[in-house]
Amino acid sequence: MRVHVVQGEHFITDNPDAVLTTLLGSCVAACIRDPVAGVGGMNHFLLPGGHSPGVDRAAQRYGVHAMELLVNALLSSGARRERLEAKLFGGARLIDGLTDIGSQNADFALRFLAAEGIVHVGGSLRGEHGRKIQFWPVSGRARQSLMERESAQVFDAEKRIRPAAPPA
User: Fold this and answer.
1) Hey, which residues are catalytic here?
2) pTM of the entire structure?
């Protein structure tokens, strides 16, 4: 079973044959699992914090909401908070000259894990390349393929919906 997780979504499963996939630019995906309960999942978020003024899109785009949804779904499926382990991917800087939202996303995700007591066991954050991610939530295996910067047209939608940086 293959499930593609897009921006603003999360998915959890206990199916050992499941693989979760996503494409990331400045967005971050958290891949979290409980190895004892045999359940895991992935989210994909666009912006690090809470709700920003002037942005009325679904709250799932925000890291705080996306992380809480994923963790709560895992706990509801038998995971225990003290056994959760996470891999983080994404947070690239794809557009020179604009606010480095990718780095802000990466910083947020790391702070969230630390505050929630969730062990960070790996992944790949920041850089200048988009990523294709595959995650097997039951085993915890993850695979990343870096995308050439020239192939960034897949991130055109991200560029169009990103809020403008506030004036200095």
Assistant:
1) 27
2) 0.81
